[in-house]
Amino acid sequence: MPKATKESNASTPSGAKPSRKSGNPSKAAKTSTNSLNGQQPVVSRKVFVLDTSVILYDHSAIQNFQEHDVAIPITVLEELDNFKKGNDIKNFEAREFIRFIDKLSAEHRLQEWLPLNGKNKGFFKVLMNHETTEVNAINIFGDKNDHRILNSALRLQEEKPESKVVLVTKDINLRLKARALNITSEDYETGKIQDVAGLYTGNDTIEDVPAAAINELYEHNTCEPHKVLEAAPTDNHFFILKSFKNSVLAFYNASENLLERVDKISAYGIKPRNAEQAFALHALLNPAIKLVSIQGVAGTGKTLLALAGALEQRREYKQVYLARPVVPLSNKDIGYLPGDIKSKLNPYMEPLWDNLKYIQNQFQESSKEFQKLRDMVELEKLLITPLAYIRGRSLSNIIFIVDEAQNLTPHEVKTIISRAGENTKIIFTGDVYQIDTPYLDSQSNGLSYLIDRAKNHPLYAHITLLKGERSELANLANELL
């Protein structure tokens, strides 16, 4: 939700919950002309006008504005009607919101201010009129739905001059247009990560470690943490430990309260080329870790390591699932493409096939490993699956790799993880700075959300890959262009 300001009582996810008490009883007693069973909204509160993009991002958004009032333009309901059919998360969000509004207004008119369910909540209504008497967005920008939503906010400003009206939208361009019309406009920030630069990386380098501790790790493979660290580390955290003459890679096993040595072991022909890749493979191959995320720029080996780690464990699981969020070009859904579902998905899944071919080419065509990969694809032991159909399923005895996870919303990430059944491992890979979805950014995408919320959980491990290993030419692009 929008950030708190000095004149606002609205809180951010980390802010303190505001009080509904007013310092001026006479102001608190003022109300608008709409009523419901004698209850009326207090004009000293803000009124947040929500855009369609906010509802499709979080169907429960109207419940997240504390004591402030929330309004939905009728145009938003019209747009949601176009999203109610389908299997994508956005279709689910639209349906859930429509059901919520239907239940909320079962015995009342939506043109009245209806009290939202819950303690210290504000009021809600649908804005039916987008005709204005002064500034008119349609006259300035043209007649389209976004501009009708702007007009609804302008009309509300005219009707409630004593209240601060704020348009909340994930659409950056709509926010700019709103501000051009002197409408306060902000992003929806519930679930947003405030400090992406300080996002959990999963590993640290410790200098000046006692040589005896490093020797103990080499000799016995374990060491007590207090011999190296001043405080207890995060669960499943990785370390590069350095002394004057030597260094070692280590992992904190929280269940045993021990530092364990990490070796650079290969997985299905793929050997890690740097410390972070070794950490990633260690987490991927650790049966006690059921949820792994790998973050890094292009060429750092995220997808390749995830796929190699999954193939190395193929005997422990029934299937390996591969998936990527489908971000259509020119706003066309995959249904626009000809063919069956496999034909529609293939253009989007080529990067996964490229990595599979790279792993396969580590072996001779006559080798058992090469033939095993071919058999896994033919027998659908290695299967590409659309995320759109994940809802309602129970995924047991599988490894599920979700590539380009930065293009998922936090709710989509939660939906995928909640599908996990017995003996299932889920791997998310992506780059939080490379967003292809118009209403997400580095702070609000599902991968950033997962890394921030799941850190220090015994079932979860994360690693950020820093060094590009694709080629020197690819590194040049990442560093200089």
Describe this structure in words.
The chain has 481 residues and is an alpha/beta fold. It has helices at 25-28, 52-57, 74-81, 89-104, 137-141, 145-159, 172-180, 211-220, 275-285, 302-312, 341-360, 368-378, 410-417, 446-454, 472-480, and strands spanning 47-50, 69-73, 114-115, 123-127, 165-168, 184-186, 203-206, 222-223, 238-242, 247-253, 258-261, 291-296, 319-323, 382-384, 398-402, 425-430, 460-465. Helix content is 32%, strand content 16%. A six-stranded mixed β-sheet has the order 3-4-2-1-5-6. It has a six-stranded parallel β-sheet with strand order 14-13-15-16-12-17, with helices on both faces. The longest helix has 20 residues, at 341-360. The radius of gyration is 26 Å and the shape is elongated. The two termini are 34 Å apart. The model is unreliable at 1-38 and 328-332 (pLDDT under 50). It comes from Pontibacter oryzae. Belongs to the PhoH family. Residues 21-37 have a biased composition (Polar residues). Keywords: ATP-binding, Nucleotide-binding.
CATH class categorisation of the largest domain:
Alpha Beta
CATH topology of the largest domain: Rossmann fold
Question: CATH homologous superfamily of the largest domain?
Answer: P-loop containing nucleotide triphosphate hydrolases
Helix content: 25-40%
Strand order of the largest sheet: 3-4-2-1-5-6
Please indicate the percent range of residues in DSSP E strands (runs of 2 or more): 15-25%
Ends distance? 34 Å
Average predicted confidence as pLDDT:
84
Pfam families: PhoH, PIN_4
Biased composition (Polar residues): 21-37
Domain PIN: 46-176
GO molecular function: ATP binding
